Amino acid sequence: MNYKQQLMNTGKYLISNQLAWGTSGNISVRTDPDEMLITASGTYMANLSEDDFVKFNISTGQNYSERKASKETPMHLGIYQKREDINAVLHSSPFYTTLFSCSNEAIISKLFVETMYYLEDIAYVDYFHPGSQELAEAVTAQASNANIIIMKNHGVVVLDESLLEAQMRLQTLEMACHMILKAKESGIKLSLIPQKTVQSFLNESFYKPRKTVNHSIKPSNK
């Protein structure tokens, strides 16, 4: 499996679908149980090449490459250490999602099929400077509770079992934020799916296997 090609495809997808911009953001993939590839520092998502990735040992944090990795590497390492089921991590700042991260507006999951599934678990962390140990620790601490972590006044981290599923989760999030904002602008009152129906969908519809997180902590979007 060519993981570098998958990451290059993901970078182009994020830019093409306005889910990332310029050098903002970073993406990684678990290549085996204890190794990951992450974008190098200063790389452009739309123009990633085979040389734009850095290999790390997940347990020790050892850099196997000569290039400088993304400054958010500690955050990615922490997530993979915390969640053995996670094989892909996307960090970006899409417009509408970032707008919500800069506000106190709730991100609603009870809208339609994809939001019920992909936005079931959302956690929030306070603002810390990009690349800081404080940010890495805050995100890692929430990784057991959610598959989407909103970083206040910064952007979002999305975790999933594959890059394709992570893309879908991120795009669903951005679409929901856009929809909620447009409804507010237009004075349209959104009709939400009842919680009993949401639980029935997640547990009984067999849409997709429900992702495992710590459901003893209620996510903020419910």
UniProtKB/TrEMBL annotation:
Organism superkingdom: Bacteria
Keyword Transit peptide included in the entry's annotation: no
Keyword line: Lyase, Metal-binding
GO cellular component terms, semicolon-separated: cytosol
Statement: the UniProt record of this protein carries the keyword Metal-binding: yes
InterPro entries (UniProt xref): Aldolase_class_II_sugar_metab, Aldolase_II/adducin_N, Aldolase_II/adducin_N_sf
Protein's name according to its UniProt entry: Fuculose phosphate aldolase
